[in-house]
Amino acid sequence: MSIIGSTQFLERIQFFNGERLFASDLQSLEAFNREMRWLHNQSLHQAGVGSGFQVVGNTGDRQVTISPGYAIDSCGREIILTESQVLAIPPVADNGSGAPVFYDLTVSYPDDSQLVPAETRTGICTPAGVISLREAPVFCWVQLNDDPTNHQPVDSRLKDRINKALFLVLAQVQIFNCQLNQPVSTVPRRNARPAKQPRVACGTFNPSTWNTSLIPSGTSGSVSVSLPTSGFVFPAITLSAQVVVPSGVFQATPAYQASLTGDILQFDSTGNYWIQDGLISISNSTPGGFLATVYPVIVSVVSVATTAGDSVTIPGTNWNFQITWMGVES
Fold first, then answer.
1. Is 222 exposed, middle or buried (0-12, 13-18, 19+ CB in 10 A)?
2. Which among 244, 223, 220 is positioned nearest to 322, based on CA atoms?
3. How would you classify the pairing of strands 322-329 and 199-205?
């Protein structure tokens, strides 16, 4: 539901000295300010619980206690509870098969017709009228199905309101013999605040080309390396590639880690084979990626086909490896 889409036009209320005001004039002014605030909430904040609205209940209880809280629905409307409230759980024995019944506790924005008058006042030559309504949210128990892997509302209309964030889920309960079978769970709770850092993301990047540099000359190309008799050797060549992280994954520059993935067992046309891997140095980090510099490592392989001292060529371009990365934004 869009406030902009449902509002045909906006008018700024103006007053002048000597103007005769009616109740509708002041109510229009209040409605204008309210809709502007709702539009702000809807545009810049996500629906959910902003603070409070904690739901507490232990095994064996027949009621839950809800603490004061503030929430926003998908229309930007503020849902406010100013004092703790005790709410009885649905009086059900079981699901008909001797198992607990699952319910979600939801909260929603009340219409004026659902609020209790807080103050009335007698008019001038007119009957008394309501001048304020006591703000109070509407709580609703929504029964769920018996699917243990994916509890969903039984009533499709209530499910639609929850999916549209008009009903906000605060907690989930299991009821057996008209009492809580387990303590209240807040796992399905919908929060308005974004998840706190750190944010962790990972992925695999396959460079289309590698930039190569010979050591120490700095020229590009491939290099011939003699297979070691034991241990390992670092060829006089480096390879680099700009790793691209998808847009929007990180807001700030994270701490990156990276490794090479691929077939480390290499062959040449003469029948030699060896283990080829590499060490990675990370530089020029940004939220959108980093520069990965690879220092190849050749590990000796004892085999019939490989003779110590045989030369192999480390390619400068077609290096069949991918870079697996992980970033932690703190």
1. middle
2. 244
3. antiparallel
The SS3 assignment for 112 reads: helix
Q: pLDDT tens across 272-285, in order? A: 677 778 889 999 99
How far is residue 57's CA from residue 182's CA, in Å, rounded to a whole number?
A: 9
What's the burial of 109, exposed, middle or buried (CB within 10 Å: 0-12/13-18/19+)? buried
Q: CA-to-CA distance for 38 and 78, rounded, in angstroms? A: 8
Which of 88, 99, 38 minimizes the C-alpha distance to 63? 88
Tell me which residue has tokens 């232990």.
58
Question: Residue 134: which pLDDT band, with cuts at 50, 70 and 90?
Answer: confident
d(CA 41, CA 20): 34
Alpha carbon separation from 330 to 39, 47, 191, 196 (Å, rounded): 32, 25, 21, 9
Amino acid sitting at position 135: E
- What is the model's pTM? 0.57
Which amino acid appears at position 201 of this protein? A
Q: What is the pLDDT of residues 90-113, one digit of tens each?
A: 999 888 888 899 999 999 999 888
